[in-house]
Every structure is written in structure tokens, then in C-alpha cells.
Specification:
The structure is a single chain. By secondary structure, the chain is mostly beta strands. It has a single domain, classed as Lipid/polyisoprenoid-binding, YceI-like (Lipocalin). It contains two helices and eleven strands; from the N terminus they run αββββββαβββββ. The N and C termini lie far apart (67 Å).
């Protein structure tokens, strides 16, 4: 006599081979999700990362220069929308194109490079717009004094570098620094601006 057909109202056991496949697929999906959610570390590319500054000179012309020696890391979790940037500027690398002005900026009147050869920005508060970083807030330490600073993205992008064969992320970030918060007070009473516009162009390579 042929067996009675299974009652559709009663759950039937899943065959072992199908169960094993389902378990394997679930494990694979979980692994992929964890890999996607894991934070990624990027090393700052010193050949494409520079901080430039602009400050009014007696309310007339604009003094400009840049810090050309930089290093650090960026950690980004695109899923959790979190991150951390740790950027060090070598203050001995100040360049304005005018040697006497460079010397004045490096001296005790301004950045006192002999005693404070580096500046450091550490940002751990990230704001995202979708997958793109919109701004980073943290602390800037300059001339031994630390004050809050927010860098706002003018543009942000990630791309697959055709030569490095790795993902590169970066952009242009802007902020206004009050130099007096860091003890850089020379010229303030004579009309040399306190507010200094800083633009950080940065590219970082995924490790």
C-alpha cells in the first residue's frame, strides 16, 4: 500500500543535506556581514596630504603657506558611521615661499618649533552623509596647547587606486583656527588676524 501523503498542517523535518547547506549559507552570510561592518584602517599618504593656511595681514593682503610634512592614520567604519583620525603635522616643514617669513613663523613669536616641533589633530566624532564623511570634530594640539576643532568636508570620495590596487579615501577639509587659543599671540594688537583659515587636503590608503 502506498504511504499516505504528508499532512501539510504538520511541519516536516528538513532533510539533512539541505539543512547543512542552509547552515553553511547562514555562516557565510554572517561572515560577510562581519567583514563589511569591520572598521578599516587607512594610512595617510604624505605625498597627497598637505595642510595650507591663510591669514589676513593687517586687514589688507592674505598671507599663505603650508605644512608639507604630515603623517598619521584614519579608521573608518562605514556601517557603524564612526571613525578616528590621528594626523601629525611636522611644524619644521612650514613653507610660505619666503625664507625670512618661514623663519619668523618657526620662531618663538609664532610656533616655537624648537620646543614644539609637531602639531597634532585627533578627531573621533564623525558626521556622515550617507557613505561620505561630512565633518570630523576633535582636538588640535598646537604649541603645546589643546583646543577643539571641527574640520568640514568640502568634498569626500573613495576610489580604487589604479596603481596601488587599493582603496583610497580622502578629500578637502576646512576649518578656522583661532591661533590665540594655542598661545600664538604675536601681532594681534597690531592688526594681524587671529582667525586662520586652514584647508587640509588628505588622501589615505587602505591597509
Amino acid at each position: 500500500m502506498p504511504p499516505f501523503p504528508a499532512d501539510p498542517s504538520i511541519p516536516q523535518p528538513v532533510p539533512k543535506d539541505i539543512m547543512h547547506k542552509l547552515i553553511a549559507l547562514a555562516a557565510l552570510a554572517a561572515t560577510a556581514t562581519l567583514a563589511q561592518a569591520a572598521p578599516a584602517t587607512y594610512a595617510i599618504d604624505p605625498t597627497h596630504t598637505f595642510a595650507t593656511f591663510e591669514a589676513l595681514h593687517f586687514g589688507t593682503s592674505t598671507n599663505r603657506g603650508r605644512f608639507g610634512k604630515n603623517s598619521g592614520t584614519v579608521v573608518i567604519d562605514k556601517v557603524a558611521k564612526t571613525g578616528k583620525v590621528d594626523l601629525t603635522l611636522d611644524m619644521t616643514g612650514i613653507s610660505t615661499g619666503v625664507a625670512p617669513f618661514d623663519g619668523h613663523l618657526k620662531g618663538a613669536d609664532f610656533f616655537d618649533v624648537a620646543n614644539h616641533p609637531t602639531a597634532r589633530f585627533v578627531g573621533e566624532q564623525f558626521v556622515f552623509d550617507g557613505d561620505k564623511v561630512k565633518e570630523v570634530s576633535g582636538q588640535l594640539t598646537l604649541r603645546g596647547k589643546t583646543a577643539p576643532l571641527t574640520l568640514k568636508a568640502v568634498r569626500y570620495n573613495c576610489f580604487d587606486h589604479p596603481m596601488l590596487k587599493r582603496e583610497v579615501c580622502g578629500g578637502d577639509f576646512e576649518a578656522t583656527v583661532k591661533r590665540s587659543l594655542h598661545g600664538v599671540n604675536w601681532g594681534l594688537q597690531m592688526g594681524v588676524a587671529d582667525d586662520t583659515r586652514v584647508i587640509v587636503q588628505v588622501e589615505a590608503v587602505k591597509q
